[in-house]
Design a protein that fits this description.
Number of domains: 2
Number of strands: 21
Number of helices: 16
CATH class of the largest domain: Alpha Beta
Bound molecules: 2-aminohexanedioic acid
Low-confidence stretches: none
CATH architecture of the largest domain: 3-Layer(aba) Sandwich
Strand order of the largest sheet: 12-13-14-11-10-16-17
Structural class: alpha/beta
Strand content: 15-25%
Largest sheet: 7 strands, mixed
CATH superfamily of the largest domain: Aldehyde Dehydrogenase, Chain A, domain 1
CATH topology of the largest domain: Aldehyde Dehydrogenase, Chain A, domain 1
């Protein structure tokens, strides 16, 4: 099946000597992929640096042309690529389409950006001097992505990096290699169509050793890595030790507050999408719900009802809203957390079981009923990110209590509040409110648009990707001063010679 879809990207697959790729839909093999060797990583970095030398001199709007072509190819192949995302990541078809749409949107944004990349003019203290700040291409970017957004996160990075003048080497998750190869085929076509260097975009496949080779490589200027906090904790210091630049997008333990004035119909829809959508496997997934005591029973019973209508199953089938977990390890994390719920004095209100029918049909596939658990307090379990559809519900009385619970997470990615009280909404967005990189009112924490900068604080790693001025991470800032006079006044009024 995967071979036929890859054929539509002009790829012959599988090839000899390749490692097994699996689909979480059945747990079965899709075929094989081969990991890169250390020498191949070196070669990729060398080729990328050679491409950098000409690409950085290419006018940015011309660089934008490459991304414009990529966007056009993505539009053409949206269905095919979405099909691969579903096969490899287990994402339901509608969300897989949305993920490819996110790539297309990102290309559009980057094409516009290619005609901007604007700097500043600063006031010089010296007569006949002009001081500016300009942004120069940075160098080779290594993009390390996770299985859960197997293509969109690459596009956030690649589309921007390419217009900024930087070649990209992509190490996709080992779980989603085929989608990466398909994207690579499209970007290669886009480059060939305009005579751009093919080494501007490369894919290196493999496990942690391939990621480490990129992280430690002096020829890589920026490492943009998406994954767990543990991964970021390892990557950050290693890149810093060689004075490389790092952009980290790590975990999240995102919360939503349901305030007394909340529109409960709207809140329930927002909460269910954010907590159970993508089978709870977004970094922006809603994991903690903090409900005012006056609305607690109502919210919990409405949610329990909504959870029972969620169709879990083959993500290729229409009407299915929750696909499989990525693998057995993800399932173990989910099952372990549910045992801990009871041990911590909580109660599983609904869900939490492995779907017996789907499990029996495919023992290596892991379909679970999204779970809702009420918790008496916010202990270690609730503060840990379990990458699965498990939503903890907590109760609050006073505003300060809600905010304290909210901001007690070690992560700081996304956050939200459901309220119709203007004062509360504004307080949530004020300096004493949410401490996260993303803060929403009357929207769940997931499903951000690409026009804003995406990322978060604390153990989320501090990086920002996608829109706004996130492009600056892919460029080198240069402060330039030009003396167009005949004299040589020194700054700070220093007299010399
Ligand atoms: C991720 O889970 O790594 O905001 C990215 C969202 C998506 C991106 C999630 N646009 O949920």
């Amino acid at each position: 099946m995967a071979g036929a879809v890859l054929g539509r990207f002009g790829l012959a697959w599988p090839q000899e000597g390749e490692k097994e790729a699996r689909t979480p839909i059945t747990g079965g093999a899709l075929g094989f992929t081969r990991g890169a060797t250390g020498a191949e990583v070196d070669r990729a970095v060398e080729r990328a640096n050679a491409a950098f030398r000409s690409w950085r001199l290419t006018p940015p709007p011309r660089r934008g042309e490459l991304v414009r072509r990529l966007g056009a190819l993505l539009r053409q192949h949206q269905d095919d690529l979405a099909e691969l995302v579903t096969l490899e990541a287990g994402k339901v078809s509608g969300e897989a389409q949305g993920e490819v749409q996110e790539m297309i949107d990102m290309c559009d944004l980057a094409v516009g950006l290619s005609r901007q990349l604007y700097g500043l003019t600063l006031a010089s203290e010296r007569p006949d001097h002009r001081m500016t700040e300009v942004w120069q291409p940075l160098g080779v970017c290594a993009v390390i992505t996770s299985f859960n957004f197997p293509v969109a996160v690459w596009a956030w990075n690649a589309a921007v990096a390419l217009v900024c003048g930087d070649p990209v080497i992509w190490k996709p998750s080992e779980k989603t290699v085929l989608t990466a190869l398909a994207c690579q085929s499209l970007v290669a076509q886009a480059a060939a169509g305009m005579g751009a260097p093919p080494a501007l975009s490369q894919v290196v496949v493999g496990g942690p050793e391939v990621g480490e080779a990129l992280v430690d490589h002096p020829g890589v200027a920026l490492v943009s890595a998406t994954g767990s906090t543990a991964m970021g904790r390892a990557v950050g210091p290693r890149v810093a030790a060689r004075f490389g630049r790092c952009l980290l997008e790590l975990g999240g333990n995102n919360a939503a507050i349901v305030a007394p004035s909340a529109d409960i119909d709207l809140a329930v829809r927002g909460i269910v999408f954010a907590a159970a959508g993508t089978a709870g496997q977004r970094c922006t997934t809603l994991r903690r719900l903090i409900v005012h005591q006056s609305r607690y029973d109502e919210v919990v019973s409405r949610l329990a009802g909504a959870y029972q209508t969620l169709r879990v199953g083959n993500p290729r089938n229409a009407g299915v809203l929750v696909g499989p977990l990525i693998d057995g390890r993800a399932y173990e994390g989910f099952a372990r957390a549910l045992v801990e719920v009871e041990a911590d004095g909580g109660e599983v209100i609904t869900g939490g079981r492995r779907d017996p029918a789907l499990g029996a049909a495919a023992p290596e596939a892991f379909y679970v009923q999204p779970a809702l658990a009420s918790m008496p307090a916010q202990g270690d379990l609730v503060l840990r990110e379990t990458f699965a559809p498990l939503l903890y519900v907590l109760r609050y009385g006073e505003w300060d209590e809600a905010m304290a619970l909210h901001n007690a997470a070690r992560h700081g990615l996304s956050s939200s509040i459901f309220t119709n009280d203007l004062r509360e909404a504004e307080r949530f967005l004020s300096p004493g409110g949410s401490d996260c990189g993303i803060a929403n009112v009357n929207i769940g924490p997931s499903g951000a648009e690409i026009g804003g900068a995406f990322g978060g604080e604390k153990e989320t790693g501090g990086g920002r990707e996608a829109g706004s001025d996130a492009w600056k991470a892919y460029m080198r800032r240069q402060t330039c001063t030009v003396n167009f006079g005949r004299d040589l006044p020194l700054a700070q009024g220093v007299e010399f010679l």
